[in-house]
Amino acid sequence: MSTKNWYLSLQYILWGSVGLLLPLTSFPLIAQRFNIHSVAPAAALPLVGLLLVWYLPHLVSPDGHLPSQTIPLLVFAGIAVLSSLFAFLIPFPPFRSANVWNNIREGLLTLGVGGAFYVLTATWINSSKRLMFVLRVIHIGGIVIILWSFWQAVTWYTRQGYPTWMFVLQSYLTSNGRLFDQRVTGLAFEPSWLAHQLNLLYLPLWLATTLQRTTVFRFRVLGLSLENLCLLGGGAVLFLSFSRVGWLAFLCTLAYLILRANLTLIRWSRDQIQKHLHLNLARWIMERAIPLGLAFVLVAAYAGLFLGAGFVLSRLDPRMRDLFRFEFVRTEGVVGYANRLVFAERLVYWQTGYRIFADYPWLGVGLGNAGYFFPQKMVTFGWALTEVQDLMFRKPFIPNTKSLWVRLLTETGVIGFVTFLTWLYVIWVTARSLGRAPDLHQRTLGWAAMLGLIALVIEGFSVDTFALPYFWTLFGLATAAASLPLSPNSAPASPERETSPEA
Q1: Is the pLDDT of residue 304 over 90?
Q2: Cβ burial, residue 84 (10 Å; 0-12/13-18/19+)
Q3: Could you say which DSSP state residue 65 is in?
Q4: CA 394 to CA 389: how far, in whole Å?
Q5: HSE of 241 in the Cβ direction (CA atoms, 13 Å)?
Q6: Higher confidence at residue 420 or residue 339?
Q7: Where do the TM regions start and end (predicted)?
Q8: CA angle, 368 as apex, 47 and 238 as ends, to 5°?
């Protein structure tokens, strides 16, 4: 094998490792080496290898340009650095022995990790062969998540517990080694992170491939592709995670698909009336009656969908048994009602973050620094919550806002917040354009990115870290697909024969 083929093979091995290791959110080897408490994606290890082996040489080559979609992200990164530098001019309240510089460094590192997943995905995939390869290894990683999660569920519901060997294995895979009663966690740090990775990478891909009837495998069972089966299994795993935000995020993606289908129905109804009737009455029906009637039906249907989901949730999850007892809002206030739903802590974190933002609205307090202000800005009710007390007095790290959106406002200010949203808007425009592309795989990735963006809006209220690689990877796939010269109407499944990773 020539030196060039060895070099290409090494790239494929590294990217294959990245895709297969994506399910591991808090790998002990990384967490212990860098003293990270939770977010330590195992895929970052081969990603660093790919960065050194391929990206740095690529960057200085004549073809080493970045996609235009990265420009707002680079601007945001610059604002984050600027905000963190200006943070040294802020008089920080003391918080145990926490070091400001260490928190800023860790915050910038997590942003760098997330950005690296996006940039390397968007730039390494420069051919249809590479795209198919990356999609296959990502799907295989998702299959591992499903199988291990099902094993956890079957073990719990048949034994009401887990054998010792499962705890030992989980301790090698996650930094906390925990398995949760009645909730599957897959290969993630906790069930909510399992829901996060499903909603922001795997389920959008499986749902989009199902809608577009594409696949990257030849495998079939009763006419169903592997991605179709993964969608069913992934949906079941999401349900078994009992992540309320995860359920809501997936429900919103389904609502978006239903809305798109309904808009298509409205346009079709108008066309049919216009085709068969040419009277003033038809024009009035077409312009007023049909849109109003369908709008009423849609609002009622969506309200029923969300109320039905809430009813099911209140019956399945003990935390939500008081969901429809709205008298608690009147007697105990919004925070008291949220406390009955075991949700008050999140509201307290968000409210505290907003108070910090109100004091430093333009550039915030720098990445990783919001927690220093929690003792001053915490609402009184928060001090009565057990989780808040543990975070403030017993945990070895400073608190955070538990929301990506609140964190952006608090730590990078309105300037950073708007810039980050600008990047997401650029990704949305790219995804919309891909969703109308003639190539089936491009169209699939466009739809997947749109569904992932919708899920991110909801998931952003639950997870606040930049280091989890799932939405970065999904948006990187869409960015790469937007620049690929794929042939129109390409076959949905046509694995290419090749003697080496690239001819």
Answers
A1: no
A2: buried
A3: P
A4: 7
A5: 32
A6: 420
A7: 12-31, 38-56, 71-95, 107-125, 131-151, 221-241, 247-268, 289-313, 413-432, 444-463
A8: 60
How far apart CA 218 and CA 229 sit, in angstroms, is 13
Q: For 153, phi and psi rounded to 5 degrees?
A: -65, -45
What pLDDT, on the 0 to 100 scale, is given for residue 443? 95
Residue 45 is predicted with a pLDDT of 94
Instruction: Count other Cβ atoms within 10 Å, centred on residue 153.
Output: 18
State the pLDDT at residue 310.
Answer: 62
Residue with tokens 């949760």: 180
Instruction: Compute how many other C-beta atoms are within 10 angstroms of the C-beta atom of residue 151.
Output: 14
Measured distance between the N- and C-terminal CA atoms of the chain, rounded to whole angstroms: 12
Can you read off the two tokens belonging to residue 27? 């790998």
Whether the predicted pLDDT of 88 surpasses 50: yes
Q: How many CA atoms lie within 13 A of 242 on its CB side?
A: 14
Residue whose C-alpha is closest to residue 227's, from 133, 145, 139: 139
Residue 40, strand partner residues: 26
Return d(Cα 36, Cα 396) in angstroms, integer: 11
Here the tokens at position 322 are 């008081």
Residue among 481, 245, 448 at smallest CA distance from 341: 245
Torsional sign, CA 273, 277, 283, 288: negative
Collapsing DSSP to helix, strand or coil, 497 comes out as coil
